[in-house]
Design a protein that fits this description.
About 0% of the residues lie in helices and about 55% in strands. It is built from no helices and 11 strands. It is elongated, with a radius of gyration of 15 Å.
C-alpha cells in the first residue's frame, strides 16, 4: 500500500526556517509530480509548490523567493525548504503526489495521493 509520510513541521519564529520532507513508500512503479499544499484555518487548501519527475518546478507567488522545492528520485522523497517564514505561512502542510502503484496484474494507473499533513506554526 502506497503512503506519503511527511516530517519536519513545527513551531518557529518569524524570519526562521524549516525544511519539510515527504517520502513515498510502498510498491511504486513510478512517480510523476510531487508537491506541497497548505491549508490555514478557515481557508481553502492552496498549492504551494510542486516538482515534476524531470525537475521542473512551480512556486506560488506568495512564497516565491522564500521557499524552494526539490526531490530525490532515488529516495522517492520531496523536500520543501522554507526560509524567511512569516506568520501568514502558518498552516497544515500536505504532501501530494501523482504516482503509479506497482500492481501484480501489470495494470498501471496514475493515482493521486495525499500525506496526513504536518503543522507549521510561525510566531510573530
Amino acid at each position: 500500500q502506497v503512503q506519503l509520510v511527511e516530517s519536519g513541521g513545527g513551531l518557529v519564529q518569524a524570519g526562521g526556517s524549516l525544511r519539510l520532507s515527504c517520502a513515498a513508500s510502498g510498491s511504486i512503479f513510478s512517480i510523476n509530480r510531487m508537491g506541497w499544499y497548505r491549508q490555514a484555518p478557515g481557508k481553502q487548501r492552496e498549492l504551494v509548490a510542486r516538482v515534476t519527475a524531470s525537475g521542473a518546478t512551480y512556486i506560488a507567488d506568495s512564497v516565491k523567493g522564500r521557499f524552494t522545492i526539490s526531490r530525490d528520485n532515488a529516495k522517492d522523497t520531496v523536500y520543501l525548504q522554507m526560509n524567511s517564514l512569516e506568520p501568514e505561512d502558518t498552516a497544515v502542510y500536505y504532501c501530494n503526489a501523482d504516482l503509479i502503484p506497482a500492481r501484480p496484474t501489470g495494470v498501471h494507473v496514475l493515482t493521486n495521493y495525499w500525506g496526513q499533513g504536518t503543522q507549521v506554526t510561525v510566531s510573530s
